[in-house]
From TrEMBL:
Keyword Transmembrane helix assigned: yes
Domain MSP: 8-128
Similarity annotation: Belongs to the VAMP-associated protein (VAP) (TC 9.B.17) family.
Residue stretches spanning the membrane: 188-208
Organism: Digitaria exilis
Assigned keywords, A-Z: Coiled coil, Membrane, Transmembrane, Transmembrane helix
Residues forming coiled coils: 154-181
Protein name per its UniProtKB record: MSP domain-containing protein
GO annotation, cellular component aspect: endoplasmic reticulum membrane; plasma membrane
UniProt-listed GO biological process terms: endoplasmic reticulum membrane organization; endoplasmic reticulum-plasma membrane tethering
Amino acid sequence: MSSDAGELLGIEPIELRFPFELNKQISCALQLTNKTDKQVAFKVKTTSPKKYCVRPNNGIVAPRATADVVVTMQAQREAPPDMQCKDKFLVQSAILPNEDIPKEVTGDMFTKQSGNVVDEVKLKVVYVTPHPRNEGFEDGSPGSLSYQEPFALISKLMEEKNSAVELNNKLRQELDLLRRDISRQRGGFSLVLVLVVAIMGILLGLLMKR
């Protein structure tokens, strides 16, 4: 059976949207939610296996649990006409018997002959044009965060530069004061030494006269 919303697995989103850019790998995340109280196996297929990488492309989702799948589109050298993509994905799911969980997921689990309850959901691929970071005006004013970010960064850098210059000037002033204090201390010590030597000379002279 086929439906937009799987009966066994809830799939979000129901279409893969890639912000298309040339020569760049682009990823899109899928979340699979087990709607049942049973173990559900899944397998993800695509009409263009060389173009997309799916990790993991199969697995088992525990009852009422979720599983994350990442679909990565390989870097493209050319854009499709009118940005229209004909690629499609198929998510197969099957309820597993209550016995032991199998070590690996096989294609036989999703056939009618297996006797399992099987569900299939088709997903479309949509290419969207990424928004330039320096645009995004709203109501005639620069309202996007991407527009404001460069100016906020420049302002922050200027503040840090001014703070650094001010701190450097203070350090220079303190260093000059410290040098002057050292010079004064050295000069005072020399004067005291000269006075002590002079007094001792006078005392020795007086003792010699006696």
